[in-house]
Specification:
single chain, 13 strands, globular, Rossmann fold, 248 residues, two-stranded antiparallel sheet
């Protein structure tokens, strides 16, 4: 089985985020980048499937040279090969079209993407890829079993979990639950050394024009001053909640 895991290179949530050019562009200076967590759950699942499903795992990202450190980490985790499509990740549409073009050349039985990235939280790319390729699609996936050409999966839905099955090929939007945080693979020295010998292919972009353009970013307003109320001043707390905060 041939598995593709799509990887987003995202800022660590502890990084201080700034914008430049009149708040129209993200400033990457001094920002630590990591594998998008939802993608990492999917990558771990794919690595598990290497033995159980005799699978070959390729990781792919759309981005410039700076993302290669993240791809090398994916190789150290256990992927067999990495691919970088050489262009900025401008928007969901152009990213999905670039990935579609690659998948038209290299056929994959299973494509795993994070259900969304933690930077823009669009949640659009997996569905677009499935639509462009005419593959089956499931997102919010918390369990996946493949036997032969049949996939059985579970996804989170309002009020519970839905269990379904379909034929491959399939695009999966992964999240926590597909594997747990305690299952994530921390690269060891052997994995890091082996990653240096694994192929990292750089392929030219198709030059897809994005459909959207960022106009301006706004940071959340600073937190307001906190008022502390003594434990024995319940009436004062109720008065503030009703007349000042107006939440009751």
């Amino acid at each position: 089985m041939n598995i593709l895991v799509c990887i987003s290179n995202v800022p660590d949530t502890t990084s201080k985020i700034n914008f430049v050019e009149n708040d129209s562009k993200f400033d990457p200076s001094g920002v630590q980048f990591v594998i998008n967590p939802n993608d990492e759950f999917g990558l771990t699942k794919a690595v598990w499937m290497k033995e159980s499903n005799n699978a070959n795992v390729t990781v792919l990202t759309v981005g410039e040279q700076s993302v290669e450190a993240t791809l090398r980490k994916c190789l150290a985790i256990g992927a067999d090969k990495a691919v970088r499509i050489d262009c900025p990740a401008n928007d969901a549409y152009s990213v999905a079209k670039e990935i579609e073009a690659h998948c038209e050349q290299v056929k994959y039985d299973l494509i795993i993407c994070g259900r969304e990235s933690i930077d823009y939280n669009g949640g659009i790319v997996p569905g677009l890829i499935a639509g462009f390729l005419d593959y089956n699609f499931v997102t919010n996936c918390v369990n996946l079993d493949i036997e032969g050409s049949k996939a059985t999966f579970s996804r989170e839905m309002s009020g519970g979990t839905e269990i379904s099955e379909c034929q491959l090929p399939l695009v999966v939007g992964s999240q926590k639950g597909l594997v747990e945080e305690s299952d994530l693979i921390i690269p060891n020295m052997r994995g890091i050394m082996m990653a240096r010998q694994k192929p990292l292919d750089i392929i030219p972009a198709q030059g897809i024009n994005p459909k959207t353009n960022d106009i301006k970013f706004n940071k959340p307003d600073p937190k307001s001053e906190v008022k502390l109320i003594k434990a024995d001043e319940l009436d004062k707390l109720i008065d503030l909640l009703e007349n000042e905060a107006k939440v009751i």
